[in-house]
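Anyone? Bumping this.
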Amino acid sequence: MVLEATMICIDNSEWMRNGDYSPCRFQAQADAVNLICGAKTQSNPENTVGILTMAGRGVRVLTTPTTDLGKILACMHDVEMGGEMNMAAGIQVAQLALKHRQNKNQQQRIIVFAGSPVKYDKRVLEVIGKTLKKNSVALDIVNFGEEDGRKPEKLEALLSAVNNNDSSHIVHIPPGPNALSDVLISTPVLNGEGGGSDLPAAAGGNDFDFGVDPNLDPELALALRVSMEEERARQEAAAKRAAEESARQEKVEEPSSNSQDATMVDSADDRASEASGNNTDPVAITLSMQTPGHNDPSVHDVDMSEATHEEEELAIALQMSMKDESDMSKVLEDQSFVSSVLASLPGVDPNDPSVKDLLASLQGQSESEQKKKEDEPPNDEK
Amino acid sequence: MSTESASAIQKSQVDLVDFVDWSGVECLNQNSSHSLPNALKQGYREDDGLNLESDADEQLLIYIPFTQVVKLYSVVVKGPEEEGPKTVKLFSNKEHMGFSNVNEFPPSDTAILSPDNLKEKPVVLKYVKFQNVRSLTIFIEDNQSGSDITKVQKIALFGTTVETTDMKGLKKIEDH
């Protein structure tokens, strides 16, 4: 969104007839120019772009910086190839064009397409770079086309002479299957500073936990993360509780219900990891995770009875868990018992700080009840 | 004479830093980590560790617009002995100058700074040239030792504003 006046220096020398970029270098360059003009004018409506050609019969300004995209595209049509590129003169004319821009508040930027060999000395280029830096003009260099040994080195020297605070960039684009403009999309030439533009980020996947970019929507990302953690904690507490219940009943039942709880916890964890790993709809996942939590006993009831063959014992275990909580709290107070149960649950790591906190709080008992109550209201809200 | 001018500064002239339009302040060829506010803003400029430094070469072009029309009386430029500025050209009411056209216009005033000036002795300007100043451009052409980097610790401008001239202040100027 930086307010900028840009001059694009096009290479229309004989070297641009080469076909190593499809259909020919010149056409690829023209597409890239169109792309840049569009991007600049879109990012800020007051941005202006101008074009000049460096080869042909001499440096010629096709348009002075303007906001009119149509005018820019129209003047690209008449460009003819020929001659040799005169980069030094091109940059200096660009600098002059920028100096006389209408809106003096715009930052000055020159984008140079260097497709043919650079015949200047490194020193000459450095002097040019220094003058640009002194007048606070940023420079972007697109190095494509001819690859002679010294060209990248010279262009890098030019860049380092101009570069002030990373506002100038250089891009090397070797010939390949991708179009020049496609490669440019992901470069800082098109995106300015600070990472990708909106288009690639939305199109490609992103690595964020919930498919929501914390930069784009921090509140949503935070809410999703918090609800995920709450759900996980609730699942753990519920799994523990159910484990206590069944353990209290019969030793025989314990292994089965433990395994049952283990599978429950596992499936809960699987769902959690699934949610964090993929780009599937995060909201749906958290909601689906919440619904079992919300109707905690009843859904457990359903799942558990489906999962194992020991239905009756499980039904009893569940009924007990649905019953008075105070019974359970007393059981939970037994620290060693609780830790042993926890250790047996594969999904719960006893060393997990949150689990430790929970254990500590169970000693006082009040917090566990509070937590259950806290979980229920947000559940109710959702 | 110098003591009189110094007292004149104290009595009638104000520090114009309050009337600087910060949104339009520009400095060409400054080093981005040692920038103009270090030399111009209250607080920063008193700190001798914070300097304005030049970047690619030793010249600096500073553009300062004001929120009101002011009359400029004197200027203080403080800098280190070696890399402090030497030749300073002042242009009044010339907007958006560049290094290429500084030499096209005659400056409103030129000052060659002596080491005394660099120790905060004010430079009295040609008052008649600075009666109606909306913006000031300071071009620092070279420095004392001829080194590649010019350092400026403080730039202070003294004068009066046109709209809010204090009548008592006027009287005092007439006194001497």
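Late reply, but here is one note on the structure posted above: Chain A has 17 helices and six strands.
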